[in-house]
Specification:
Layout: E1 5-12, H1 16-30, E2 36-43, E3 50-57, H2 60-68, H3 72-76, E4 91-95
Antiparallel strand pairs: 1-3, 1-4, 2-3
GO molecular function, one term: monooxygenase activity
Domain ABM: 1-91
Keywords: Monooxygenase, Oxidoreductase
Length: 114
Amino acid sequence: MKGEIRVLLYHSTEDTEGITAAYHQVSRAMDGVPGLLGNELLVSPYDSTEFVVVSRWASRADFDRWERGPEHKGQTAPLRPYRHPGMARPFGVYEVSAAYPAAGAGVPAGRRSR
């Protein structure tokens, strides 16, 4: 986990079906991208028009290579209309600096990052 990258993309829409379909379309298009470990579509339990797509990357180098590559814009295009309009920068890129999985989550206690 330590050294992995998380990318958060903030979206806002009342079109729940549309953003869900776009998320699945983007996820299928990105299947097999080197270094992409997975992604999730989150919806706020407090405001059903607020969404976040979180992607997990093995390293910043993997993410940067994909982001600078020619396929990046096309692969993510279906989600672009849903980007949060009220944010100057509707995304964030973060490196995992520490992690502590819950006991029983499949990571031996001696291997946990602190």
